[in-house]
Amino acid sequence: MLEGAKSIGAGAATIALAEADVGIRNVLSSLIHSMARNPSLAKQSFGYAILGFALTEVIALFAPMMAFLLSFVFRSHKNYHCD
Q1: Which residues neighbour 65 within 8 Å (Cβ) at sequence distance 6 or greater?
Q2: Where are the domains of the chain?
Q3: Could you tell me which residue ranges the V-ATPase proteolipid subunit C-like domain spans (predicted)?
Q4: What share of the chain is helix, strand, coil (3-state, %, to 5)?
Q5: Which of 16, 72, 24 is nearest to 49 (CA)?
Q6: For the packed helices 2-37 and 42-68, what is the interaxial angle rounded to 10 degrees?
Q7: Entry pTM
Q8: Residue 47 — pLDDT band, cuts 50, 70, 90?
Q9: Helix or strand (DSSP H, E) at 52
Q10: Residue 48: Cβ-neighbour burial (10 angstroms; 0-12, 13-18, 19+)
Q11: How far apart are CA 45 and CA 50, in angstroms?
C-alpha cells in the first residue's frame, strides 16, 4: 500500500517538469512581446526574463529531486525482530 502511494507521489512530482516547460515558454514569449512593443526597455526586460527563467528552472530541478526522495529515501520502516 505504501509503495503504491510513493509511486503515485513520485509521478505527481514529475508532472511539475511539464509545467516548468510551459512556464519557460511563457517567460520567453512575454520577453519577445515586450521587446516588440517597447524596444527601449529591452535591456531591463531581458533582466526580468532571466530572473523569471531562473525561478522557473528551479521548479524544474526541484520536482525530480522530490520524486527521487519519495522513491528512494523515504522507505517504510519494517520492524524486524529476531526470535
Answers
A1: none
A2: 1-76
A3: 8-70
A4: 85, 0, 15
A5: 24
A6: 170
A7: 0.65
A8: very high
A9: helix 42-68
A10: middle
A11: 9
Cell numbers at residue 24, please? 519557460
Greater confidence (14 vs 39) lies with 39
**Phi (first) and psi of residue 41, to 5 degrees:** -100, 20
Q: Which amino acid is at 69?
A: L
- C-alpha pair distances (Å), 7 with each of 18, 70, 75: 18, 8, 12
Phi then psi dihedrals of residue 58, to 5 deg: -60, -40
Three-state DSSP at 8 gives helix
On whether the CB atoms of residues 67 and 14 are closer than 8 A, the answer is: yes
Looking up cell 525530480, which residue turns up? 64
Asked: is 1-76 a CATH 3.40.1410.10 domain? The reply is no
